[in-house]
């Protein structure tokens, strides 16, 4: 009975202890999972959303981009921000946020640029001017959904045409998955090709039609939702219905297109008839559809008035309705894109056919002036536009086509006249609104990839993901550290750790050997040992400050420009020579003492050997002193002054500082390893006639080798994770010249460097847009943690193997 | 031969008094390899050896017996100056090896140990190959010639009766051998430099009877070629393998003489009590 009580009491304690253990393990697990999850998912291509802000009112705000994070007050969204040269993130008030207003559009694509981050939008054209750029197109366009940006335009000089035929085919092949590329060759003054025009227009019309169809479908859906809703929603619904009515405006576009086609070119009657037929057919179709829809709306209106149901159900329906509405907005948006493309096509066609100038109506001139102000067209460009627009065309178009669409067209013209290889895009402007549409052009050489993320299959996404990791590990950063790779940081970390290890292991091992093998225990030795253990606990920033003060400002400055530069008072030259004489004679005496000891029998000359040691030490100290105080040394890099070479942070000084920082680790672990060498081995070796050093070299050190390696690995693990001292000692978020490259002398010890840990710090704290750098930060953290973990793991494996191997002792 | 009138030397020793050893004439008359002369040793303030005088005849096996902690091993280690590695030792008296005192300041202890082989209680092969183990003493003595090393290795292993067992495993780690083999490997290592004196510090205490038997046989074979000083606490072993036996008690040599006499009719009843197992 008694034992049972005790055991129960113990049970409680065990549970308590176990609970704490579980708590600790749980926290560790959560941390590790967090790091792994965030790091591994950093590069997964995120789907692009169209976010519709505000409820269904007349002019909804629309944002295009990735949702980044969400807290209790706001939601952050990454959007295009070409105005600032980086992709920007924007925060949206949570009150405005509605998950159901977040929809995906297959149209939107992500263009990754080298310099200015990501752009979200719809690519219009990919224009290439020469062969090398054409090659770029095939590499850049990973999966463009060019139904939207329906073609790749290759504008070539006439001379090149014959030689680049294959090139065109190459591009055509690249883009076949996406669409039929309409490859246009430059023609100056030639007449337009009716067939081509028809094909292009047809395509755009198909696009527009399919959008309209979607719109109609969305309306139907909304109508279905509304059927059973409370009358309170009637007003909202009516608004929607009104908006939907705007779709009828589409009909006008067809008219215009026809007018353009007729007005600009004198076609044969046959051709004209075909064209007319085509347009008329399409118009009829649309009209029929509209009439049907109106009828349906009428019917639904009646039903709506009759219906009244319970509140919960109505709420549910409201949600469904909102979703439908957001879908509808998307379709509307896509329709406007389609129309923009259509108008751009028209303008372009007008441009290529080179139609004769016509008088413009007054309204059109005012319009054009407005456009000129908006787009800051030069007068030549205005003339160009003026010459392009026939009267009929303008007369018809004025009412319909929006200034944004014309702007887009003008931009296209401008791109053409600039003769640059570009990607032209319709983007959401400066992270603000999708309306009005904005036209952006990106030089093709700056484009890294165009990804139609929302259209990708899982396999394609995996490919993109792997590609991004590969780039991350092997490339230099780009777009202000928001994309690209961190290879320079990996290289810097590796070089830093290697130099550090090379410096710390000999020092640490010799110190530990002396402490463990040579001197006998005494209070002084204990004090030294305690000091070493304490050194391991000194904050690393203190080492950093020491490194800056000693290595950079004293040693480095001394190397750069001699004692004067390092602020050391030099000796007058007679005094210096006297000092040199003293040191020289001192070392001479020491030399002869050593010689005498070497020749004589050991043990006899104990006092002599002590004297020799003393003299050697004095000579060395004197030599260093004289070197520092030399009036003749002018430094190695005097020419470069006042720009310091070694007198600033660099990879060598950083490595040596880290070596000091990790010295205690190596000493302690080497001492432990030496303590584990069984005395019987030492005694056996002595009994074989080995001297102390022979025993250490042949028996003790090989036996302790694994322990020393373990110490080195642990030191490396500590060094890899250091940031604070490196910030003071030359670690930068971006460097041009790497500390290790292919130029003689390959290793440049005075150069600044990049470091993984420092990269995490500077990207997460010092970056102008911390949201945009987040994937890089988490991927770097993952890499860093993996490096440290693998170093520790290796250290443990080495230790385990060592134990197994010498299990006998 | 000096006879002490005191009735019981063991009681005298326990009382902290000095005792005169009974040393048989046959060992005194033989040609000595080592002469221990009035050798005393202190660990700090504790005296471990009390004025031991003891000649060790050349070419014979001399065993040191006595209860645990009586100073046998200390005496043995004093002979090749392994005592140098202990702190706080005080020595008095002298030990002559081949006629010259080994505690003179001029003597290089490293050089001395090359001329004296030593085998320890626990087998302590180095964590290296069998071959490297055997030639280690040569290598540290500066002999690098491969042919010499090969020859010495084979020779030593043959003498240590280990050659047949390890001739195919010379490159294997010495730690992979069995306990008895390891101990014979240590013997081979000890005789590699052809020393004239071998010190055995209870070489069989960590071994099973079969391995013990082999070591004992080996000691018998080495007799005559080397002077052997062996510490053991196994009376039967001392009786089996040694020519002379010294009985040490509390740091004092009690009786020292030919093994046959010590084990059959010693001068002192104390010795008889000890060797017949009535005490100790």
Which SSEs are present, and which pair or pack?
The complex is a heterodimer of chains A (809) and B (280).
Chain A: H1 2-41, E1 49-53, E2 61-70, E3 74-79, E4 88-93, E5 102-104, E6 109-113, E7 118-128, H2 131-140, E8 141-143, E9 151-154, H3 158-161, H4 165-175, H5 194-226, H6 234-245, H7 250-264, H8 269-306, H9 311-353, H10 362-375, H11 379-388, H12 391-400, H13 403-418, E10 422-429, E11 433-443, E12 447-451, H14 458-474, E13 477-478, E14 483-484, H15 487-518, H16 523-535, H17 540-565, H18 573-599, H19 606-628, H20 651-676, H21 679-687, H22 692-720, H23 724-728, H24 756-765, H25 770-805
Parallel strand pairs in A: 7-9, 8-12
Antiparallel strand pairs in A: 1-2, 1-5, 2-3, 3-4, 6-7, 6-12, 7-10, 10-11, 13-14
Chain B: H1 9-14, E1 22-23, H2 25-29, E2 32-43, E3 46-57, E4 61-65, H3 72-79, E5 89-97, E6 100-101, H4 109-114, E7 116-119, H5 130-140, H6 146-159, H7 163-166, H8 179-190, E8 197-201, H9 209-222, E9 227-231, H10 235-241, E10 244-249, E11 252-258, H11 259-264, H12 269-275
Parallel strand pairs in B: 1-11, 4-9, 4-10, 7-8, 8-9
Antiparallel strand pairs in B: 2-3, 2-5, 5-6, 10-11
Helix pairs in contact in B: 5-6, 5-8, 6-8, 8-9
Describe the protein.
The complex is a heterodimer of chains A (809) and B (280). In chain A, 63% of the residues lie in helices and 10% in strands. Chain A is of the alpha+beta class and 809 residues long. Among the domains of chain A are: 1-41; 48-184 and 423-474, no CATH class; 488-570 and 631-805, MetI-like (MetI-like fold, Orthogonal Bundle); 571-599 and 609-623. In chain A, the strands form 3 sheets. In chain A, strands 6, 7, 8, 9, 10, 11 and 12 form a 7-stranded mixed sheet that branches. Chain A has a 5-stranded antiparallel sheet with strand order 4-3-2-1-5, covered by helices on one side. In chain A, strand 1 and strand 2 form a beta hairpin. Chain A is elongated. Chain A starts with a helix and ends with a helix. In chain A, 40% of the residues are buried. Chain B is 36% helix and 25% strand. Chain B has 2 domains: 9-104 and 196-280, P-loop containing nucleotide triphosphate hydrolases (Rossmann fold), CATH 3.40.50.300; 125-194, no CATH class. The longest helix of chain B has 14 residues, at 146-159. Chain B has helices at 9-14, 25-29, 72-79, 109-114, 130-140, 146-159, 163-166, 179-190, 209-222, 235-241, 259-264, 269-275, and strands spanning 22-23, 32-43, 46-57, 61-65, 89-97, 100-101, 116-119, 197-201, 227-231, 244-249, 252-258. Chain B is globular, with a radius of gyration of 19 Å. Chain B is built from 12 helices and 11 strands. With 280 residues, chain B is α/β, with parallel strands linked by helices. In chain B, helix 5 packs across helix 6, helix 5 runs parallel beside helix 8 and helix 8 runs parallel beside helix 9. Chains A and B meet through helix 21 and helix 22 of A and helix 4, helix 5 and helix 8 of B.
